[in-house]
Design a protein that fits this description.
14 strands, about 15% strand, about 450 residues, alpha/beta, Rossmann fold
């Protein structure tokens, strides 16, 4: 099939590359000239394991442009995958989605039927709004006999494992009122639904992986599925973090508590890892949007509101605990291990480390930081602040009063804890992800602090 994807961010680029890999002819539309130049040479502008390798394998079916009109006119499926940032009040900014809808409508040919897919995470009712915008442009241009079926097809990609999530998904959700567009999207995803594609050499099919369900529903329900899924996962993390705080008070170990409750199949063990909370581009934005929608419709999202409050409190609590053990952080040297909001990505959007750095600087601590891949993105976000960026964790630890592990990069597991402790002024390790074994850390000479331990 011929597919055009408007927007080549995390979602758009991953979707474009993966659809090209399974055999479709895909054109990605990108307006940023520097980014366009990079992806036209099949280089990824983002750190995402396997993405650049898959671009190379897919390049015969993959092209990129800054002009959507020529490719849209010849496509069976057109996807909108542009960014949907939050407004200050938490509502979703749909300007890029609406601009994309108008540009798509400009490129539609008379006498053709198109399936317009909304891949971006959008507020409830956006499907209707996009359909109206397209219809208005078509009418204004006096185009005749054009049929546009608008469908919702939310993404469930995790940064750091986006290729895996695309090729071996838990489910594929399509929301549409036209059976024609449902059939087209079933055709689009058939190689994934039936797992008939040849797995890429670097990402074999998971052992025991079953065929994914193809869920068809109405557009409103499809839009809500995305928000509800992310809100529930965020709530699960905040729940275990709240339990962790109580564990610290009573002397329980939250890792044991999580193991004990996670074995209940009604609960499950995933997303029960206590730590410094969630960040990134999805959970913060989607929970804020859900809260804003609830206020708009006089249906308060109390659990989601509290989920967000508990999450931010974890960051404040980390700084408070450093204050307690150091008897104040003013003038202290604090080393931060990890800047990305999670391992496997260079994304620092709403990363706990960024907030913690700001809090430490406000309290006049000296901050040093290290991350395997996210340093450059963090430098942009922290520009103008007195933060020392060091490529060598051991150099960062020299003379430091405490280390705070924020991102559970596997590279950090290979560090010599004894060597780190030996060069510090006061060997304190705050393990913000319960990443290390406490006894191992203590034997290396550290005072160990965990979350809920």
């Amino acid at each position: 099939m011929k597919v055009t994807i408007i927007g080549t961010g995390y979602v758009g680029l991953t979707t474009a590359v993966t659809l090209a890999y399974i055999g479709h002819k895909v054109v990605g539309v990108e307006k940023d000239r520097e980014k366009l130049k990079l992806i036209q040479s099949f280089k990824s502008p983002i750190y995402e394991p396997g993405l650049e390798e898959l671009m190379e394998l897919s390049k015969d079916n993959l092209s990129f442009t800054d002009d959507p009109v020529p490719s849209v006119s010849d496509s069976e499926v057109v996807m909108i995958a542009v960014g949907t940032p939050s407004k200050p009040n938490g509502q979703t900014d749909l300007r890029d989605v609406e601009t994309a809808a108008r540009e798509i409508a400009e490129g539609l040919f008379e006498g053709r039927t198109y399936t317009l897919v909304i891949k971006s995470t959008v507020p409830i009712g956006t499907n209707r709004r996009v359909a109206y915008i397209v219809e208005q442009v078509i009418n204004a241009k006096s185009k005749n006999n054009i049929k546009v079926n608008v469908a919702s097809n939310p993404e469930f990609l995790r940064e750091g494992s986006a290729i895996k999530d695309m090729l071996y998904p838990d489910r594929i959700v399509v929301g549409s009122r036209e059976s024609e567009s449902v059939d087209i999207l079933r055709r689009l995803y058939r190689p994934i639904l039936e797992q008939t594609f040849e797995p890429p050499p670097f990402l074999p099919r998971p052992e025991g992986y079953d065929l994914p369900p193809f869920i068809t529903t109405d557009p409103i329900s499809a839009e809500m599925i995305k928000y509800a899924a992310n809100a529930f996962l965020a709530m699960k993390i905040s729940f275990i973090n709240e339990i962790a705080s109580l564990c610290e008070k009573v002397g329980a170990d939250v890792t044991e508590v999580a193991r004990g409750i996670g074995l209940d199949p009604r609960i499950g063990s995933r997303f029960l890892e206590a730590g410094l909370g969630w960040g990134g581009s999805c959970f913060p934005k989607d929970t804020a949007a859900l809260v804003a929608m609830g206020k708009e419709l006089s249906c308060p999202m109390r659990l989601v509101e509290t989920t967000r409050e508990v999450n931010y409190r974890q960051r404040e609590r980390a700084v408070e605990r450093l204050q307690e053990i150091l008897k104040g952080v003013r003038g202290r040297i604090i080393g931060i291990l990890g800047l990305a909001f999670k391992p496997g990505t260079d994304d620092v959007r709403d990363s706990p480390s960024i907030d913690i750095i700001h809090m430490l600087l406000q309290r006049e601590a000296h901050v040093r930081v290290n991350d395997p891949v996210a340093m450059e993105n963090a430098k942009k976000v922290l520009e103008g602040l007195e933060v020392e960026f060091l490529d060598d964790p051991y150099e960062m630890a020299k003379g430091a009063d405490a280390l705070l592990l924020v991102t559970a990069w596997p590279q950090y597991r290979k560090l010599s804890l004894r060597r780190l402790a030996s060069v510090m002024r006061t060997p304190i390790l705050f393990d913000g992800r319960n990443f290390f074994e406490p006894e191992e850390v203590r034997k290396a000479g550290f005072v160990y602090l965990g979350v809920g331990r």
